[in-house]
Amino acid sequence: MRKGQEKGRFVISLDFEINWGVRDQQTLDQYGQNLLGVRQAIPAMLALFAEFELRVTWATVGLLFFRTKAEMLAHLPEVRPQYADSNLSPYLVMDQVGESEAVDQYHFGHSLIEQIRRTPGQEMATHTFCHYYCLERGQTAESFRADLTAAVQVAQEQGMTLQSLVFPRNQYNAEYIAICEELGITSYRGNESSWIYKERSEEQQSLYKRGARLLDAYVDLSGPNCHTLDDIARQFPYNIPASRFLRPWSGRLQALEGLRLRRILSGMEYAARHGQVFHLWWHPHNFGVNIPQNMAVLRRIAEHYRYLHATYGMESQAMGDLATELQSRSSAVTAS
């Protein structure tokens, strides 16, 4: 790192939703093992984060905060999204929710949230209250405001202040940023700048773009996707764009694992060398199967971060850390 150059930043954010991101029974049958395995994966990840002093943002669906179904039902917002595709609404399947986390590990996450809170350096953030889809037909600004208000309130009742947001399915909606600011959100995870990752509703997604994103995980199609602090500071709440999705280990694609890991490590090194931000993200349930293999990959990433920290001064920051730093810089400039 050259004298006077910014230090690189390594940001990690996790989309913590368990079953609230899954609607249909076929998908649940397919991912059921992942969803239950998250209860072994999260403690393993937390232990590794603590070992390597990695600060991580856990963007958590508000519906996971409760201990019982009665608590959950008492906190549901009155205004709810009326999606054209009713399968997207979790409110239509409330009869499937068990009475507590003890009997229903798909829909409750309070005990996992408590583990996260006890681990140093972990930021609790929001993934909206009901895994809200901001670009789907039938939802409105009014229902989004009600949803995010519910998420903020339940966190406050449990002693947490939510400052960071991850849009479910990365459906970033610029029209809702002012609402986020009103409710105390200081940063959100935006999408990579490449056309491959442009935000779209599910109806607008194409197999071509999905295929391009998959290929980009192994071959450099979109570049390192790193960003300078000056770029991030241009707007508020701060857009801290994603750099790379950490895809789960795949036995079917095992021969390409070296390419997938190299794609991530090279992006981290680019950020460290150039004083930029590298933002890695995934879902905890991605690690719910093949846990040893997935944790081995994560350890390699953590070890590379430790090397970059020692060599270039790279820092680990949660999204909220970065936003707080940028706010402090802005206040200092204004005061001067």
From TrEMBL:
Domain of life: Bacteria
Protein name, per record: Polysaccharide deacetylase family protein
GO BP annotation list: carbohydrate metabolic process
